[in-house]
């Protein structure tokens, strides 16, 4: 049987390389390797598979690493290159970035560079020995001996890079068009962590795993089959990121269909009871006139808000949902409050629910002040689409911010005043889990002093002074471990406020309508809605990740702005114009109009 016959006999759901099969059977393959595979073999001629395996084993034993997720495994070029043909058939276009999570000796990274027209290929590896093998030996060899021999001009220009670190901490791979994880030995917790991070990938991007699919509803399975690897056959799963708006629309449609069925059934039951009651009052004529019908019973308590102009919906945020501190809970309620203000014709009223350290002054609108959140008719919890920036841009409306500030001022009774003109909310520690390094704050303080020699600067944070490293030597005042209400008020009343990566300072920024609001030289997610860049600072010099002259903070999120421009407010409320709610007379229907 020739090579073509063998290849044609395989199931279309398998990408197993026929040369691997012939090798197992002790047969000779008459088909020579492709030019790309020849270059791949030339690259690894001095570094066969046992080199990477030995390097991995040595470092794991030396440091006592026992996690199964660090088990070493490698791909075979032919079957792996076949994956890109599957992706091409599914609509993958040239360009974009490829990333291998746990890149080992870099085989998948270089195979991707040789097999498809990517702009950039990236490998992330946590073991130092394997990273150095790729970065210091294989990459220079690729640039010197392989790159110029590649037939495709586009592939000759591909940017190949390797990063040492933990893929659950480094988020650079999220911007990739194709992500590969040789995940056979990954445990459930690691897969769930990667799934949560991958939910931030753009719609249409691909995530390829081995043995088990990515546990996420944000991805749809596009292809599965068997692929040969260095250790044997494995099951491969190709999943594609679902469009967020389509996913949310489908979920809302499902819930609304069930809700409308239920409302329709209730409507039919009420109508049947009304007809039965009317029939019971009919009687023969007495004295030349019919028996007078009794007046209709009053509507059940809670079904109507105001006889003249009832609000169409009552929006609230459930107490304790997505448990967070004061800042996080406050921001969620601000978003619901702001969305309610976007509903035309006073068709929504905000109902306040309890929250930790409730010093916000937030209270229910007058028209629904007697109702408890979630208990009255037409209560809704808005469903905000991703990205989360949509909530912050919604609250950024200056009229909404002034209304929130007015309520806050009505209840705020501070006992402490702060003399500083520049107030920075800092998250202490080095950059891990979203914390900004101390060196960044040192750079920022010096930049402020350079701009204003007489600047008085306060650092609001927690912990002890010693934890701020070199920042202690600067001319600043530390306000540490203060009363939450006093700290929050100090941020709200700041003339110049610098946001930290914290919901507390972000909530304060929404209320600080008098302040000039800036970001620290690292962009927290929501700050673009209300904050400006502190331009005098040299961000690339004081924040290690800024090696490519990226500005201190990014411009306004165009995707969010477009989403808000075309926003259907009622869809966020989970309501359509076909929702039924009969009035007490039984003649009308409750139907909110689109904005």
UniProtKB/TrEMBL annotation:
It is found in: Nucleus. This is Histone-lysine N-methyltransferase, H3 lysine-79 specific. Residues 267-308 are annotated as: Disordered. The keyword Protein biosynthesis does not apply. Residues 1-273 form the DOT1 domain. Transmembrane segments: none annotated. In contrast to other lysine histone methyltransferases, it does not contain a SET domain, suggesting the existence of another mechanism for methylation of lysine residues of histones. Histone methyltransferase that specifically trimethylates histone H3 to form H3K79me3. This methylation is required for telomere silencing and for the pachytene checkpoint during the meiotic cell cycle by allowing the recruitment of RAD9 to double strand breaks. Nucleosomes are preferred as substrate compared to free histone. One of its GO terms (cellular component) is nucleus. It catalyses: L-lysyl(79)-[histone H3] + 3 S-adenosyl-L-methionine = N(6),N(6),N(6)-trimethyl-L-lysyl(79)-[histone H3] + 3 S-adenosyl-L-homocysteine + 3 H(+). The keyword Repeat does not apply. Keywords: Chromatin regulator, Methyltransferase, Nucleus, S-adenosyl-L-methionine, Transferase. GO terms for biological process: methylation; regulation of cell cycle. GO terms for molecular function: histone H3K79 trimethyltransferase activity. Belongs to the class I-like SAM-binding methyltransferase superfamily. DOT1 family. InterPro entries: DOT1_dom, H3-K79_meTrfase, SAM-dependent_MTases_sf.
């Amino acid at each position: 049987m020739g090579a073509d016959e063998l290849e044609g006999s395989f199931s279309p759901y398998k990408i197993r390389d026929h040369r691997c099969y012939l090798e197992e059977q002790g047969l000779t393959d008459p088909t020579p390797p492709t030019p790309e595979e020849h270059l791949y073999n030339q690259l690894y001629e001095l570094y066969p598979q046992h080199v990477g395996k030995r390097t991995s084993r040595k470092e794991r034993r030396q440091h006592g690493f026992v996690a199964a997720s660090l088990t070493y495994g490698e791909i075979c070029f032919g079957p792996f290159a076949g994956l890109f043909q599957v992706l091409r058939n599914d609509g993958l276009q040239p360009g974009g970035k490829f990333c291998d999570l746990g890149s080992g000796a870099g085989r998948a990274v270089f195979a991707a560079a040789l097999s498809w027209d990517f702009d950039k290929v990236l490998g992330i590896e946590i073991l130092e020995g394997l990273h150095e093998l790729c970065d210091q030996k294989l990459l220079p060899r690729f640039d010197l001996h392989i790159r110029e021999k590649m037939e495709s001009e586009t592939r000759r220009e591909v940017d190949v890079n390797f990063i040492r670190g933990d893929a659950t901490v480094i988020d650079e791979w999220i911007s990739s068009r194709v992500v590969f994880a040789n995940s056979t030995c990954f445990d459930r917790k690691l897969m769930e962590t990667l799934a949560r991070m991958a939910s931030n990938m753009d719609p249409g991007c691909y995530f390829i795993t081995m043995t088990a699919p990515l546990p996420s509803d944000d991805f749809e399975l596009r292809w599965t089959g068997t692929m040969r690897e260095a250790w044997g056959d494995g099951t491969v799963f190709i999943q594609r990121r679902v469009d967020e708006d389509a996913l949310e629309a489908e979920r809302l449609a499902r819930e609304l269909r069930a809700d409308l069925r239920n409302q329709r059934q209730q409507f039919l039951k009420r109508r049947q009871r009304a007809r039965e009651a009317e029939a019971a009052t009919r009687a023969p004529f007495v004295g030349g006139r019919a028996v007078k019908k009794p007046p209709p019973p009053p509507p059940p308590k809670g079904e109507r808000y105001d006889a003249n102009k009832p609000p169409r919906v009552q929006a609230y945020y459930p107490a304790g949902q997505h448990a967070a501190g004061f800042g996080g809970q406050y921001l969620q309620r601000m978003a619901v409050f702001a969305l309610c203000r976007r509903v035309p014709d006073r068709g929504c009223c905000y109902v306040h629910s309890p929250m930790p350290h409730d010093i916000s002054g937030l209270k229910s609108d007058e028209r629904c002040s007697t109702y408890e959140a979630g208990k009255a008719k037409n209560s809704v919890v808005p469903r905000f689409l991703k990205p989360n920036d949509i909530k912050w841009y919604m609250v950024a409306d200056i009229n909404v911010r002034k209304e929130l500030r007015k309520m806050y001022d009505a209840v705020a009774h501070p006992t402490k005043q702060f003399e500083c003109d520049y107030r920075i909310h800092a998250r202490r520690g080095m950059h891990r889990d979203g914390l900004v390094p101390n060196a960044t704050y040192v750079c920022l303080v010096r930049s402020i002093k350079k701009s204003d020699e007489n600047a008085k600067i306060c650092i609001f944070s927690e912990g002890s002074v010693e934890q701020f490293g070199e920042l202690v030597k600067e001319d600043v005042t530390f306000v540490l471990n203060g009363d939450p209400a006093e700290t929050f008020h100090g941020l709200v009343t700041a003339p110049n406020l610098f946001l930290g990566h914290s919901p507390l300072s972000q909530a304060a920024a929404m209320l600080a309508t008098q302040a000039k609001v800036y970001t620290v030289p690292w962009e927290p997610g929501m700050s673009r809605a209300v904050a400006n860049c502190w331009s005098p600072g040299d961000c690339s010099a004081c924040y290690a990740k800024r090696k490519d002259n990226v500005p201190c903070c990014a411009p306004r999120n165009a995707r969010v702005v477009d989403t808000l421009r075309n926003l259907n407010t009622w869809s966020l409320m989970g309501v359509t114009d076909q929702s039924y709610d009969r009035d007490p007379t039984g003649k009308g229907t409750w139907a909110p109009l689109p904005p």
